[in-house]
Specification:
single chain, 348 residues, alpha+beta, Ribosomal Protein S5, domain 2, Pdz3 Domain, 2 domains, 18 strands, 29% strand, transmembrane
Length: 348
């Protein structure tokens, strides 16, 4: 009897291991289409559209032994080493913070480009320097953390990213600096002793952080965006089109279910994104009729380094043929390509 119990217990432990133990690998698979109007609201907007604009997601999960083995048998599930997902210098929390920062920047660019295309003015504000990650062994370890926003150094207000560089450049190893920063909407202060920057090619004193500019944009009418559960920059194009659609009296969708993906750059260029094959599959499954795909340029240098690399649009077309979708795949290099395509559509 005891032997049977021991066997059952061992089997249970093995099952739990296979189902719950997290490996240093991720699984990417098709996500879902989400109507962008659920996340974006322009004050006093025109929202009588018969169609819809949808952003696309991919589903990412950390693999367990069971899900890892299962993914190997599935055509449209991709196994990725943890280094392909996360920067080697960041932990999981810092990765999540970076993804949210990319989404925030995506929203900024979407508002800026949409208002520019609508012929409306915007006001850009510099908020500070956003900490992306704190290097292990660096001066800021245990003082600053990812997501902090540095607003002052030694009593001087930071007015742009270069100013932080200029203030720290003449400092020596062992010198102290007082940092004013915002964490969880609360202003805090800390004094940090400068150290050599870990893994730097040159010996110099620094905070030991990676960072990016933190900017915000004021618009009239006001645009509110609720995207707490979405990370990364790939919804930028669809955010831009949705804001523009709500600003204009005309219905850009013409009654069609329109989806797409692509980073929105500040000059209106649509940037390359990852997982477009899975987004095409999800868009088809969720009943989308038109799909905008970044038509990014693959340079000879990129092709030489990565022979199998192809544009997002080429991948999207290939997958669309494989799954025999009736969905129209439309290449876009800029937001203007997408706008022009929608404007020439005959109403459904």
């Amino acid at each position: 009897m005891k032997k049977k119990i021991s066997i059952y217990a061992m089997v249970l432990v093995v099952i739990c291991f296979f189902m719950l133990y997290r490996l240093d690998a991720y699984i990417m698979k098709p996500g879902s289409a989400y109507d962008v109007s659920e996340f974006v609201n322009v004050e006093n907007s025109h929202t009588n559209d018969k169609g819809s604009l949808s952003l696309m997601t991919v589903a990412m999960q950390q693999a367990t032994p069971f899900s890892y083995l299962w993914a190997k048998t599935q055509k449209y599930q991709k196994l990725m080493d943890i280094t392909q997902v996360r920067n080697p210098l960041e932990d999981e929390e810092e990765y999540n913070v970076r993804q949210l920062k990319l989404m925030t920047d995506s929203q900024f660019n979407a508002k800026y480009v949409a208002f520019q295309r609508a012929g409306l003015q915007t006001k850009i504000l510099f908020n500070g320097v956003f900490v992306l990650n704190v290097l292990e062994g660096g001066a800021s370890e245990n003082f600053l953390k990812a997501g902090d926003e540095i607003i002052e150094v030694d009593g001087q207000k930071i007015r742009n990213q270069q100013m932080l560089v200029d203030l720290l450049k003449p400092k020596q190893l062992g010198e102290k600096v007082t940092i004013q920063f915002i964490r969880n909407k609360k202003e805090q202060e800390v004094t940090i002793t400068l150290k050599e920057i870990p893994r730097s090619e040159e010996t110099r004193a620094g905070l030991g952080i990676t960072y990016a500019e933190s900017k915000s944009i004021e618009t009239n009418p006001n645009v509110s965006m609720k995207t707490e559960d979405i990370g990364g920059p790939s919804a930028g194009l669809m955010f831009t089109l949705e804001i523009l659609d709500q600003l204009l009296e005309e219905d850009l969708t013409k009654g069609y279910a329109v989806a797409g993906t692509g980073e929105m750059l500040v000059d209106g260029t649509v940037g390359r994104i990852g997982g477009i094959d899975y987004k095409v599959i999800a868009a088809d499954r969720d009943g989308m009729e038109i799909f905008f795909a970044p038509d990014d340029e693959i340079t000879p240098e990129m092709k030489a380094k990565y022979p199998e690399l192809e544009s997002n649009y080429a991948t999207a077309v290939k997958v669309a043929k494989e799954i025999k979708t009736k969905m129209k795949i439309v290449p876009v290099k800029t937001v203007d390509d997408a706008i022009e395509y929608l404007k020439q559509l005959q109403p459904k």
